[in-house]
Amino acid sequence: MEDRTEMNNKYPDREEAERILKEAESCNPGPWGDHSRTAAHCAEAIAERSGMDAEKAYVLGLLHDIGRKFGKRHLGHVSDGYSYMMSLGYDDAARICLTHSFNEKDISKYVGKFDTTEEETDLIVEGLNALELDDYDRLIQLCDSIAGAEGVMDQIERMTDVKTRYGGYDQAKWDANVRLKEYFESKMGMDLYVAVDKENYRPDGLM
Q1: The whole model's pTM is what?
Q2: Could you tell me how many helices (H) and strands (E) the chain has, helices first?
Q3: How far is CA 161 from CA 61, 77, 94, in A?
Q4: pLDDT tens, 52-76?
Q5: Which CATH code fits 4-206?
Q6: CA distance 199 to 112
């Protein structure tokens, strides 16, 4: 078990993470807030059944898209989120802002517009190259692939929706997400959608 005092220096507690998200939504309102809540719910539920730290998983899921606080950006939300969390001293949350969009740590696989400056792009590339993905990175990648603003979505339907909105979806990323579903189902010993209560869960704004 990780030392909680040490870990709390790397990501905020649940209450503070929820405050950070609400404050960010006031800066840039949109469905991304409830998408983040759904991802957090899924991450917590899966972590509880996978021998992982459920509190950490919840917080990382809640903050993975926090870069959207700074406006309607695509790849830019990755660097914005990373820089914001690092400025607060939350290294683990910053890491997830980087890794949630890159199953293979390959920036060329990003689904969306490349709207970063050269400096921001270098920040993302260098940050990804400096780390090895762990199960928390993989968990949030999975949850991002099933989290809708109105609740949990079927993974294929969610990825198809993203593909339709952005005009494409890298096949390697698609296949990696499917493998992540299988990986965590194996760890849990149960169906993913049952674990996250797909049929009943709704984010706070829709309860």
Answers
A1: 0.92
A2: 11, 2
A3: 20, 19, 27
A4: 999 999 999 999 999 999 999 999 9
A5: 1.10.3210
A6: 29
